[in-house]
Amino acid sequence: MKLYEKLADSIGDQIQRGVLLPGDRIPSVRQTSLNHHLSITTVIRAYLLLESRGMIESRPQSGYFVRARSVAGTKPAPLQAATPDASAEPSQIDISGLVLSTLQSIGVDGAVPLGSPYPDTALFPLQRINRYAHAIARQQTFWGVPSELPPGKPELIRQIARRYLENGAAVDPDEIVVTLGATEAINLCLQAVARPGDAIAVESPTFYAISHTIERMGMRVVEVPTDQKTGIDVSALAKLIESKQVDACLLMPNFHNPLGYQMPDERKRELVELTNRHHVPVIENAVYNELYFGDAPPGTLKSYDTQGLVLQCASFSKSLTPALRIGWVLAGRYRANIERLKLLNTLTTPSSAQLAIAEFLENDSYDHHLRRVRRTLMQHASLMRSAVERFFPEGTKMTNPAGGYLLWVELPRSTDSMRLYKSALDNGITIGPGCMFSRSGNFGDAFRLNYSYAWTPEIEGAVVTLGKLASRYAALQRKEEGEERDLAIR
């Protein structure tokens, strides 16, 4: 390879990897000549080669710049995130690696983020909240002792308690401990109610971060069968509790990730009566509670708790702003322990973020914002369900979410969703394959879709592509099954 070709390939590789972005200025010919110990003629030839490849452009009197990528009429380049072997058996799939590669692929330029676990930030009043945060930060002074010590800023705690009251639930403000998002809240609760080696019951399927958190703490995940409409099987959970196979529960009864259901209130009451009777603590993940599609807020496990054994975790990340990462725990009888663990784990939660949200809740119309978000998500859910029904093969099933922004889709005839996942990546589309949501590798014929994003031609086109790919693999599955039957008959 000639010197100018090597230089062109080196710069081109930096562009492909995102080190140099569209609009970035390329070092001048003279500077590149000095840096690489090459002649000016060699550098010019390399730049001309990059121009011919459509990667850079010359601007008179300004130099060379990375060329903007064409958007219309082009197929996204295959995503470069490392992907697991789609042909592997479910038990052989590295679920942690699969989760990481899926999250990495969501950030790749041009990817359609149907596999994202996060809501579209366009739904949130980020600029308004950021203005509050910046103004508060400018006014703050430091007196040597952090003002963010647990349980949190009184202004925010009061607003959280008021929010519960507005939703029909009176809570004790002294029970609230502010955290760095719901993730820290769940971590603190697990540390407070269980020890390494303890067994934690979860729904099956369940959000992969829950299982990872439990196992990272040296605890064991116990998956309990879960209905797509009514939630965890309480009778199955009762057998596990009565046989001393469960030490605590970590559940998401409202707008479950990934299934989207809202557990009926009667089943919630039955579950809490069971766990209270056996003195089993329950961590209730309530991060999606404000994103309901009905006329009234959903009931909670916490509302049926009479012994302080239900610890409810929530945050503003899914309903107001993911940027500030503010959550909280209604800690019940574990309040003092949660506060101590918060101090030991992260010491503080930034006061400017707490006060900014408190200011927004005090002065802006949070209810108006939520009504708009709920209406938008409900419309998007309807559009996504209609598109899946229209474009996916016969026999495809899906949930009917009661809130949130996630849709669970089951492919026909045990069609392998890992095949679909890999082909979707090759087409610049991300999905959440079902095996991510079970430590035992179940749900290999299912996947999760995020419908929070604006319904654009790009989103619709991605769903159409997924439908075509799913139809291809469903037909292949039928063919393979037919061949196996023929062999059995012979």
UniProtKB/TrEMBL annotation:
GO molecular function: DNA binding; DNA-binding transcription factor activity; pyridoxal phosphate binding; transaminase activity
Family: In the C-terminal section; belongs to the class-I pyridoxal-phosphate-dependent aminotransferase family.
Keywords per UniProt: Aminotransferase, DNA-binding, Pyridoxal phosphate, Transcription, Transcription regulation, Transferase
Protein known as: PLP-dependent aminotransferase family protein
Gene3D superfamilies registered for this protein in UniProt: Aspartate Aminotransferase, domain 1 (3.90.1150.10), Type I PLP-dependent aspartate aminotransferase-like (Major domain) (3.40.640.10), Winged helix-like DNA-binding domain superfamily/Winged helix DNA-binding domain (1.10.10.10)
Boundaries of every HTH gntR-type domain copy: 1-69
Organism of derivation: Paraburkholderia hospita
Keyword NAD: no
Domain of life assignment: Bacteria
One Pfam family from the record: Aminotran_1_2
Statement: the UniProt record of this protein carries the keyword DNA-binding: yes
